[in-house]
Amino acid sequence: MLKVRIIPTLLWKQFGLVKGVGFDSWRRVGPVLPTIKVYNTREVDELILVDIVAHEGDEDPDYESIDDFGQDCFVPLTVGGGITRADQVQRLLRAGADKVSLNTASYLRPELITEIADRHGAQCVTASIDVRTDPEGARECYSCAGSAATGRNPVAWAREAEARGAGEILLTSIERDGTMEGYDLPLIESITGAVGIPVIAAGGGGSYQHMVDAVLEAGASAVAAASMFHFTEQTPAGARAALAAAGVPVRTVFTGA
User: Fold this and answer.
1) 136 alpha carbon, distance to own chain's centre
2) What CATH number does domain 5-245 carry, 3.20.20.70, 3.30.980.10, 3.40.50.10800, 1.10.10.10?
């Protein structure tokens, strides 16, 4: 098993960070840059920063802000939101991003995944898959920050994203988002069993045990969380220790002589 990554998710809306429940009822949690600086010191493996309103317009990503954030981010940074063309990715990488996350644009033009992967490598492309489950248990991919049904089946879309060149999948259960009640383990398992690329579990993480379950029971290669780190006393370092205690391989953090 590869070393499992612990990844805080930062949801960026206009002038700061927000967090909601079920992709709704957004609550402001603070400015972006100080949060990044704090996470630099908290033993995280990566950060994911997503502009959740970028899909509403046709402007380019905010390269200037990404450049500012990138200068103070000392862990790998994945940037998502508003990416519709491969040339935008080059500018984001120059500004400080290490990877990009694609959601809305990839459903409208799936070949965008391939264009970016061919130019920058599969390791640069994260396919973000947001999933809603109806009362009968049927699952469907959603775009536009969880507001637009795509008609896509999550397993089929995950396989297509991999075939088109995505290097990993960020898988979020919309119903579990912000609840801190635990990840959707059957959803995660359905995707990890269908693809050969890493799957980042997101949506519902509220305890260290939830993270252990996502890895050992559902096969996730990484665990992402937002509310758990924003609103509780639990920390990325605590998550790392809990995963290690459960036998999950994690990155060793150098603490000095």
Assistant:
1) 27
2) 3.20.20.70
